[in-house]
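Q: Kinesin-associated protein 3b, please. Structure only.
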Amino acid sequence: ISVHPINGKVKGGSLDVHPTEKALIVQYEVEATILGETGDEMLGDRKKCQKIIRLKSLNTNTDVAALARKVVEECKLIHPSKLSEVEQLLFYLQNRKKASGKEKRVVKPRDLTPFEGMEIDEEANINKVEEYVELLYEGMEEKVKGATLILHLARNPVNLEELLENETALGALARVLREDWKQSVELATTIIYVFFCFSSFSQFHGLVTHYKIGALCMNVMEHELKRYDLWQDELQKKTRTYILHFRKEHEKAFKKYQGLLVKQEQLLRVALYLLLNLAEDTRTELKMRNKNIVHMLVKTLDRENEELLVLVVSFLKKLSIFLENKNDMAEVDTVERLSRLVPCEHEDLLNITLRLLLNLSFDTGLRIKMVQVGLLPKLTSLLGDENHKQMAMCILYHISVDDRFKSMFAYTDCIPQLMKMLFEHGEERIDAELISFCINLAANKKNAQLICEGNGLKMLMKRALKLKDPLLMKMIRNISQHDGPPKHLFIDYVGDLAAQITPDENEEYVIECLGTLANLTIADLDWELVLKEYNLVPYFKDRLKPGSAEDDLILEVVIMIGTVSMDDSCAAMLAKSGIIPAIIELLNAQQEDDEFVCQIVYVFYQMVFHQATREVIIKETQAPAYLIDLMHDKNAEIRKVCDNTLDIIAEYDEEWGRKTQREKFRWHNSQWLEMVESRQMEEGEPFMYGEDGEMDRPDLFYSTDGITPASGAVSPDFFSDPYAQNGDGQHGYDSETNFNTLKHY
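A: Structure for Kinesin-associated protein 3b:
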């Protein structure tokens, strides 16, 4: 066998500073050549490599020139001629300022920083992997050294494919981790870090799964969290003892605890990063959930290490998009633990925490917890922070959806900040989140009063009318619904709002303008003048035709007619215009829509109040007949308005009064009457009460207040029957009970 000698050359390359650490990066090239028997080059290969020289001792007082000489002497890859360049780079590192906290930094898997214990004097070489593997079979110190050398290789992505082909090395690492992870935190951290390097690339996830590293990491996390609880208990016991007697011993114990905590959090951080990478596959994520990953992560939120917390909260945020995981978070005190992180100085941590809270805020129960733990004022304070106001506003919007919490915003500085944001937009379109939030808050009376303070309403009206913004007008409409001072401020804008109600305007915008006007139930307002000046009656008649516009717009027209009908002269004008038949026609078309029916019946209720329109309703339309049909509607509000309207009609028209009483009698006793009729049909008996029956005896009918004799005296037995008053024909009466009831009357 002929042996071909290998000739290796190392060529020095460029120098640069590390982007985040106090370190120099040396780029160099390794050239390997296989020589023939005659000394000629047969085969050659080149590989680009880099070495990181970390400078832990570098600070503001360091002698840069002396340090540069030391670096050049100890690192053979740097030629002595580059001494001045090294000195310049060290001077730059010495004076480089830390990145501003306002700069957004996206947390990436490769951002995992080196940890204490990774430093090693020996330079790792891909060709010596077998030697490093052999170290894994030695004592604990040798195992740590071998794993660390392999880790240095794995941190360079170029080496991963070659390491992948070395099943012996990976198998040995997995075995050592499985057997010895409890014996050495450094060893466990280093080996998991090796597999983390593979997990940073999706194509290598199969390899990590094959060696069951994910399951091992879950076991490591569970074990370390239990150890942490034990440390805490032990420290508390020692604290109570030492503070009383031995101060120095207490400081020593605490220092030891701090050292253990640093190493443990390094291990947790590497293990969690690896699991986060593997969780890209939802099936793997489900396995983690089954092993209680959510509870372990929430438990880790108590730590103070900000880099670890960024990772934990990022993981929880990823998990929170699935309902099952969100429910797991709701079972434990997730929101309570997150609340201490809002606000915090670490920008990345605050940002990711707000994003997690936003995901959780879709759950009603978790929104309640957010308010209970005092997040409302904390989030409100973030509205002034340009970096976080969007996230904070979205969470606050979700909280404002619940009517129970709307009033709480009045006791913060939220509303002044929102009003400032609204007016800062100028003529630009307002952000959807901002205007939606304002719409919700305006639905509360106290908030509405704060919004209107100063020139608030005037500025809102000016902007809404100028830009014809339907969402801004919706906010104004919500303000107008509250009785008291805010409503009376709208008197100055009735004309402006009425002028917007034209066929040419955008329907959504007109709906909000109509809704705002319909809310203005103010006694002193001359609606007749408004309708005439802005020629609104023809517009109303056109829009009342079924299909003439969107249902929402037609409904607002009906509500508006109900409001203006409070004015007797205005009601008379509407009646003469022939609008009542149009309303009845609309009632026929929309009889399945409870909202339409209720509002139309309310229009009839308003009109029968006034003598001029009462005659038209009773004599010239079929409105009373429709009202009688609706007396027993399944909707309680419709029944209530119908009863009140028919009461008024009965007072002024005896014929409709008798018809109403007859219908109420028939409905109340429907089951008894059906039973009697069916028995007569079967037995051929004559009518029990004669041919005319009881239907011609008005003393047996009941009024709207209950069943009363003609004299008006109410039978006490009526009030003892809980079903007699509500006219509910669905209750089952036996024949004897109904018969006795009728006999008593």
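A: Brief note, in case it's useful. The longest strand covers residues 41-54.
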